[in-house]
Fold these 3 entries.
Entry 1:
Amino acid sequence: MTIITNARQSYSWTQPDITYHPDRQQWQHRTEKRLAEDPSLPFTPLPDGFPKELSSPLVWEGKDCQTEKQWVFELTSTHLDEIDAAVKHFHGLNVPFGQISPATFPLPTLGPVLRNLARELHHGRGFFVLRTIPVDSYSKSDNVLVYSGVSSYVAEVRGLQDKNGGVLSHIKDLSQLYAKGAIGGPAYTTDKQVFHTDQGADIVSLFALEVAAEGGVSRISSSWRIYNDLAENRPDLIQTLASPWIVDEFGRDPPFTERPLLYHVDGKVIIQYARRYFTGFQGLPRSADIPPITEAQAEALDALHFLGEKYSLGLNFQKGDIQYINNLSIFHARDGFLDSPQKTRHLLRLWQRNDELAWTLPEPLKPLWKRTFDITPEKQTFAIEPVIRDVVQGKN
């Protein structure tokens, strides 16, 4: 067997045959092989304190969601007039965008509605869509202002996504502008994006400036429903997910960190993972000089994705919509897509935290959250044009 060596340790196993894009047959073959080698796996005890089953509105399946009225809130003409007035009010203050807040972006009737919807994120089904902002009526910078101002009522604290204080990201295909080796994350391609959570945020919101000409469906899935499936059928994978994993830092110092992907805190289950940290993606392949993942971990990654697909809901994400999800209880993904000269998919993203409603974080995640939210309004910057975030810039 190949031994991978670095200055710290020798590893007597190799990275499993697993890539960013999951292969269902490969997953099924790996599962069959592991169960044949150890038939006792489905009878593994759950980790101490972990529930046999979660019962909550956060446990849902896509088939349970019969109509968009269950999760879409339609803005009225009064709400849109308030947003217009708030834009004018903010410009009159002559303050930087880092000061965008309910105090500087007043929404007298819409604001209380948004605060109530924030409770839906934390105590309801964990997601909603706001429909729809007339994006063509605003400049690029005013669309950023509207998005940030409206979102400040859902969660006032914005998180850092990029160096130099960047709290706003653009999700857009940039593969025509950059070489393949310069892109290390699927957000900047037309590729399918597999189920994952974003790293270091309570709430992830997306604002659709434009949708794709074809494909690009936004998909979400209840990680609590996935937990219940695994707890019933494969508790050994719960054990695997709740044990430390080697998280690739892609050449930074330290070269990797260790933490579980699954936690149970205050009666809540939290899964935090993104597949590319364990498989690599395009210009950021999995580092060769760090410990490989195990076969059990490879199976667990595939199980999370394919169960995510099984229970997922495809959202009819329209131009001008803002999608909000609880990043601690919901996985998100998107289908591959095609752009056209007339329709080029372009989303804006914020990472947010509502200090009043926020869940208690497990200790291993607190450094990630500190890194995200330890930025004052004075240091926040908002990219008006798309750029590749520094952490997903390829090495080539």
Entry 2:
Amino acid sequence: MIASPSPLRLGVNVDHVATVRNARGGPYPDPVCAARTAQEGGADGITAHLREDRRHIRDRDIERLAAEITLPLNLEMAATEEMVAIALKVRPHATCIVPEKREERTTEGGLDVIAGRERLAPMIAALAAAGIRVSLFIEPDPRQLDVARALGAPVVELHTGRYCDLHLAGERIAEAAELARIAEAAAHGAAIGLEVHAGHGLTYDTVAPIARLPQIAELNIGHFLVAEAIFVGLERSVAEMHRRMMEARMVTMPTAERA
């Protein structure tokens, strides 16, 4: 029997709007304007990653997003004292703690909460005490979910990057196995009381199988939407992603709920 699906939200990551802005050095395009446009396209929340090297989103962007948009702001951040201090100052709706390496182009995998348990515990406690929802970006591994739950993080975001890479490479058997791993992790997370999100690398072609997983409550998508916006505009790219998510989620809903 398929579990009754949770509502499905779309968080839009505006990092790469800032990447384009920074390439020229001026004020445009503006990530805050992008956030408003994403909302018009159906976004339920805005995500922004303030990296330690400030390669795209900058401190002032986070301050403005927190102050000027009406959607919930999800601040992606490394597990550092500096980032915790910024989060406590800005007070976003949520933080998502992610692994971060200066040499990487983008986040390459999930946070190892087992190895980082002692370091993460006081950070999670401090953010939670300030009323900030804490999410941990992890691999779809039940052991990682168990430790996330023990640390008191109410939310996990499952890394979908490997699944998307396998799809792009045409490795269908391995892709199916990775999708099954994500499904198992989502079910396990929900069973132990976690709210389960997913993201990284999702496109129009890969979103449906993830959106069909009934335990997934939120998808966070950024780079593809900004790339697609070059051709069709951000509002349309977000709206199309939202449509595909909702269409896929309908498959898992009981007939009475679809009516």
Entry 3:
Amino acid sequence: MSRTLGASGPAVSPLGLGLAALGRPGYITLGHAEDFRGERSVEAMERQAHEVLEAAYHSGIRYLDAARSYGQSEAFLASWLKSRGLGSGDVVVGSKWGYTYTAGWRVDAERHEVKDHSRPTLRRQWKESQTLLGPWLRLYQIHSATFESGVLEDTGVLEELGQLRDSGVRVGLTLSGPRQAEVLRRALELRVGGSPLFSCVQATWNVLERSVGPALAEAHAAGWGVIIKEAVANGRLTARNEDPALRPLREVAEQLGTTVDAVAIAAVLAQPWVSVVLSGAATVEQLQSNLRALEVKLGDEAHERLRALTETPETYWAKRSALPWN
């Protein structure tokens, strides 16, 4: 069931594990506070991260995704990789730069992260990521590239990323917000030293927010790896959300004898341009539920029913922005 991360990329599993909810005590997933049984010390969360990582590896997951701003995610991942004795070819690890974690391990922090896409931040965070993840780090991504940050027009940053690319590290970018498609198409045009700078994109696509789909198909056709995040929309496409508007999703899941999150993830896996879909599981139980997506086959009728859930990008991203840290 393995896939490749782009036309010339490494082999990866169709389902990956993202550590956004595992590396810090607060996140915007619905019900995140319930996932740690009141134990959110660094030590307790490292143990839980290791449990989920071990279950993921045992289940065949071979792509692992972290970021400098995900609290201790890189450190938790590094300590698990070392304790497991895995080699650099056993898993594919991706991380991101551009946000700095500022919550001080508090859920009620005024600001959880600060965005800065400058060249000094890239240099500092690359060194930090490389120090922790060393030989396992095979993909480094701009975290949430937008037109507003100016990162795709910063020649100094682009030159620095070009040097990373030339050293053998795959360089990618992640997207966020209602203009994902426009940013991606700009990134597809970028060349540094006469060669394409990027070879991978990570974007939000789910049954609620489909707008970036055509641009992702273009990236896939250009040989890029395509990683999908937020397949369950930060918990909105799970059993925790009792919104009556999600009735079609629940009905499809009931008919197929599976979970709503598995159906949501299966809808993403069915897209022909997808390399990896990230599970954002914070518990082993959530991971096991997500993994059921690999067994789900959605017919034309199911896809059509799920299409009725689609929101406008503006509506989707406004709702996401309103989700509380918990």
